[in-house]
Amino acid sequence: MKICVFGAGYVGLVAAACFAESGNNVITVDVDQAKIEGLKQGIIPIYEPGLKELVIRNQSEGRLSFTTDIEAAVKASLISFIAVGTPPGEDGSADLQYVLAVGRSIGQHMQGYKIIVDKSTVPVGTADKVRAAVQAELDSRGVGFEFDVVSNPEFLKEGAAIDDFMKPDRVVIGTDNVRTAEIMKELYEPFMRKHNRMIIMDIRSAEMTKYAANAMLATRISFMNQIANLCERMNADVAAVREGIGSDSRIGYDFLFPGPGYGGSCFPKDVKALIRTADECGYEMLLLNAVEEVNELQKHVLARKVLDLLGDSGADKPLAGKTVACWGLSFKPRTDDMREAPSLTIIEELLANGAQVRAHDPEAIKEARKTFGDRISYSTNQYEILSGADALVIITDWSEYRNPDFERIMADLKEPLIVDGRNLYKPDRMQLAGFRYIPLGRNGSGISAGGK
Ligand code: NAD
Ligand code: UDX
Description:
Blueprint: E1 2-6, H1 10-21, E2 25-29, H2 33-40, H3 51-60, E3 64-67, H4 70-76, E4 79-82, H5 97-109, E5 114-118, H6 126-141, E6 147-151, H7 161-166, E7 171-174, H8 178-188, E8 198-201, H9 203-234, H10 238-246, H11 267-280, H12 286-298, H13 301-310, E9 323-327, H14 342-352, E10 356-360, H15 365-372, E11 377-379, E12 391-394, H16 406-412, E13 417-420, H17 427-432, E14 436-438
Parallel strand pairs: 1-2, 1-4, 2-3, 4-5, 5-6, 7-8, 9-10, 9-12, 10-11, 12-13, 13-14
Helix pairs in contact: 1-3, 4-5, 5-6, 9-11, 9-12, 11-12, 13-14
The structure holds nicotinamide-adenine-dinucleotide and uridine-5'-diphosphate-xylopyranose.
C-alpha cells in the first residue's frame, strides 16, 4: 500500500519503518528540515533500540523515504497517518494545533479519495475536527473529493517500540465505514502473527480507549507508590506485597513496580488531558486527580530521603558541601527521552538544597544538558561519578545498574550510602556487604514518617 506518515518522532518514525518492513511504500513527512535531512543520511534523531537498522534497511531497499514536501507525499499516498505531537496546553488539555495543521495540509493537496488516520493521542471528538479541517480546505478549493477519518491510537512503549509495533497486544481501529475498516485490516494483517488482534469499534470509543489505557496504567503505578510509602511506615515489604497481589490473575504482575513517579511523554500529559476532557463536559475525574497528585508527591520522595540522611536541617542549604551521584536521567531505560522524567524534579531539589550533583546515563546526557547545562556534571561511565560522593541515588532502572561492581562502588563512595528508587538489589545482601541501603517501601526503608 502507499502510505505517508506525518511526524518523524517516536511514534511516526517507528510506524513508518514497521509499515515499510511489511512491504508497504512509506513516505515520512516532517516540517523539521534538519531532521529529514539527517534521516535521509541514516541519522536517527532519537535513541530507540533496533530502529536505526530498520530505517536504513528499508530506505536502501526503496520502501521508506523522507521528505518535507507535503504535496508530493499526499498525492502519492492512499493512507495518510497523523503522528505529530499533542502536547499539553496551559490548562492541561491536548493541544491539537499540529494535528489540525496536518489535516489542513492534506485537504490542500489531495487529488482523490484518501484515508486519514489519527495515530496521535487525541481527545474524543478530534476525528470530527480533523474532518472539518480537511473539508474546509476542499471547499475553499471548490473540489469534492471523498475521504474517511479513522482513529488508530498507538500503544507502543519507548525502549520496546519496534517489538510493540510488530507484535502488538491489539490494534484498535475506530471507523464508521466498512470499506475503510477492510483496508485498515489489510494493512495490519502482517502484524497479526498468531491470531487476529484487531479490535474494530466506533471512532469516539477508539479515541477514548487510548486515554483509558494510559490512565489505568498510571493509576496502578500511583496506587503501588502509595502502598510502598505505607509499607515503609508499617515495616512491611512492598516487593513481597507485589508478589502477593500480582499472583491473583485478576490483578497480574505488570505495572506494579513502585518508583520515583511515572514520567515520559504520555502518562503525565494523557492523565491531565483526560481530566480536562471530563471537565469540559461537567464531570470530575476524582480518581485521576488523586493519581496525578500522588505522582507529583512521589517525584520528591528520593530527594527527601537524601535530605533526611545527609542534610543539616538547621542550615539554609542543608546539602551544602555534599556530593550526590545519580544513576539514570531518562524517564525509563532504553530511551534518551527526558520528557517529564522524575530525574528533573529530583535533581532540581538536590541542587536547590545546595548539593553538587553528578549524573550518569547511557543515552540521555545530550537531552539532559538542555535542562541542566553546566549546573551538574555528567559521565557515560557509571563508576566515574562515584569518587568521593556522599551518596548514590538510583533514579532509572537501566539494566547496567542491576548487577554492578559493588566492591568498586564501596571503594569509590565517601560513604557507602545508596538510595535506590527502583528497588534493584536485595536489602539483606546489601547490608551484609556493608552498605547503608535505602530502597523504596521495603521493611522500614522510610526515613521520616508522616506526610502524604
Ligand atoms: P514527537 O514529538 O517525538 O514527534 C512529533 C513530530 O511531528 C516532530 O518531529 C515534529 O517536527 C513533527 N511535526 C509537527 N508538526 C508537523 C506537521 N504539520 N507535519 C509534519 N510533521 C510535523 O512525538 P511522539 O512522541 O512521536 O508523539 C506523537 C503522538 O503519539 C502524540 O500524540 C503522543 O501522545 C502519541 N504517542 C506517543 C507515544 C510515545 O511513546 N512517544 C506512544 C503512543 C502514542
Ligand atoms: C506508555 C504506555 O506504556 C504505552 O502503552 C503508551 O503507548 C505510551 O505511554 P512509555 O511512556 O514509553 O509508554 O513507558 P512505560 O513503560 O509505560 O513507563 C511509563 C512510566 O511509568 C516510566 O516513568 C516508568 O518508570 C513508570 N513505571 C512503569 C513505574 O514507575 N512502575 C511500573 O511498574 C511501570
